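Field reference: sequence -> structure
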Amino acid sequence: MLNTLGNVVDEKRQAELALMRSGLNYTIIRPGVFSKVSQGGMILGEGNAFTGADADAFLGPTVRCASPLMSSSGKFCAITRSQTAELTAAVVLKPAVYGRVIEVVARPEVESLSWRKQLDSVEFVRALGAASPA
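Structure field:
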C-alpha cells in the first residue's frame, strides 16, 4: 500500500542503505504505524520482525486497536510519535545498538516502560545482530 504513494518504501530503503554504507554510527528505528493516542506499551524487534504474517504468532492473541487499518495482522497496534521520540533518545546513548535496525510496535497489555528493559537486555542486542546493507 505505501509504495503506491510514490514509492515511499523503495525510497526509504535506499536511504537506509545509504546510511548503512556511510561509515557513521547509526540505529535505524522503524515504527509500525503512527497513532495520535497511545495504544499500548512498545515492543521492540529486530529488522523485519513484525511482518503481519503468521510469523507474528509469538506476539500472542489478536488485539483490538483504535483503527483496524493500524492493526495489520491484528497482533500489534500503532505507536505515537512521542513513543518513537522516547525510543530515539534512548538509543542515542546505547552504543550496543549502533549498526542495528529496530522495529517498534505496541500492544495494549504491555507495560509502558518494559521496552527499556528489552533495550538493556544483552539477549535482545545479540538477537538484533548487525544490519547488513544487502
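Note: The mean pLDDT is 78.
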